[in-house]
Amino acid sequence: MRSWQKLLVQILLSPLSLIYGIIVSMRNMFYDTGLLRASRFNIPVISIGNLSIGGAGKSPHIEYLIKLLQEYLYVGVLSRGYNRKTSGFRWVNSGDSALTSGDEPLQFKRKFSDISVAVCESRALGIPLMLQQHPEFQTILLDDAFQHRQVAPGLNILLTAFENLFTRDFLLPSGRLREWRSGYQRADIIIISKCPDNLSAEQQDLIISEIKPLKHQQIFFSTYRYGYPYHFFQSSYQISLDQDLDVLLISAIANTAYLLQYLKNQVLRLHEMEFEDHHIFTIQDMDRIKERFHAIPAKRKILLTTEKDAMRLDIHRQKLYDSGIPVFILPVQVQFVGENAAHFDSEIKDFLLNFKS
Prior knowledge:
Elements: H1 3-33, E1 45-50, H2 58-69, E2 75-79, E3 90-91, H3 98-101, H4 103-111, E4 116-119, H5 123-133, E5 139-143, E6 155-161, E7 189-193, H6 201-211, E8 218-226, E9 230-231, E10 246-251, H7 257-264, E11 269-274, H8 283-294, E12 301-306, H9 307-313, H10 317-323, E13 327-330, E14 332-336, H11 340-353
């Protein structure tokens, strides 16, 4: 969509955004004034979320926190389990599917089998149920809970993507914001995610000046590091991306720009099939994917997908296996820019050490 077309759409949708913003403002006012009360708990709760409708990299940052803490603490993860076909509270097991648990919670459980992961639409209900069955929990990570104010977390982490800062975005439906920009004031830590590798100190300072953090807020900058793609059916088998390889990328995530930029520099030709975020793949989708893959005129070619998408493709595991298509999964992990890593880790540890119920 061209810039003038995008601007026209935003203008036409602005009345709806205003109505939506008024409703959100009233809800936040009820919590701010105490008319609605948020639940507080006697263990440290860390919320990781964003102001927009996805694409800021919550899952890799949650995984970063799991890796940071699991050696020292008994960590639990609570998610809504978006787009699952079940309801209510349930524990996530490695043998679940994305239909029963949601893709991201299932991804956490399969990657960190020793971590307890649960899903529940209500975080205020989910946390007590987790603690009732596992009172030994020492901290709980809340996935995508910045707008869900039923729980008052001890530490509120807000993510915003480098290429789409919340300061430059607009309310739904004319933009991608789920509440007014001023909502950032509830954050204790703000992470600028998906930064370029060569982000300079001057660029960091400009962004900090644009956000205007409050006195209690810390700002950090992070980027992605992609690993070697591993085989869908045999994770120990890895390959390297190279300039002789054609790749068909299957993705159903909120924002693929960062991923596409990376892949286009790694392979000979990149072919794309994009679906809406959290899309549940159907039999018809699988047939289309197979047809598209076989239509690529290349000697060396693979089908590549993200770890989150792999959780939903796994529903059709047998069909993928029977197709004989070489399917690989691209792993990703968060890396903080420069001195940010040690500083961020220290902030998390200080919060946990100084927590008072």
